[in-house]
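Hello,

Following up on my earlier ticket. Below are the two sequence lines again, exactly as submitted.
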Amino acid sequence: ETGVTQSPTHLIKTRGQQVTLRCSSQSGHNTVSWYQQALGQGPQFIFQYYREEENGRGNFPPRFSGLQFPNYSSELNVNALELDDSALYLCASSSRVTGANEKLFFGSGTQLSVL
Amino acid sequence: AQKITQTQPGMFVQEKEAVTLDCTYDTSDQSYGLFWYKQPSSGEMIFLIYQGSYDEQNATEGRYSLNFQKARKSANLVISASQLGDSAMYFCAMRVRDDKIIFGKGTRLHILP
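Thanks for your patience. The regenerated structure is below:
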């Protein structure tokens, strides 16, 4: 077990709604990144937060937004949900040290279904 | 373009045999890192092994080794003495300059008893 916890584990929403997913990072980790994994695909990088600021973003529209809190936990918010947003959302935490092997520790994910 | 390519969508291997999962990558960065992750049906991504672009020795972690051929831009994962519990999806991934991690599409490995 990695110590990274995500909630909820499953979620069903309808198109146009908004959703908030939560992630508690492993103790001592200051960096959180979020990934979207569609069925049968590899995870796609959404964005990364380091010390409460967004630090890198993938090719996702602005309706995907996030927060990192002083305790390094994080939220992923998605507005105006679309059917294609249905996916497994994975959170990963790491301890960012320049030049080091930044091993990511993943949670078990939140399975989002948009109807 | 930065890309990870895994050409084997699925593999079937007899228990106790060694297996090689292929991974090629494309990046113009001089400094990068290569990872392999295992994803069982539970969904959690489990770190297996890491290779830095400047590491001269191939990485090893227990039964896992990474066959790093920099000139060919390949980073194949070798699992020795496969076990039934090795059945899962396996993803090759690369960390590039802006700390983004890029994943391949994965290989589903089936270990046969």
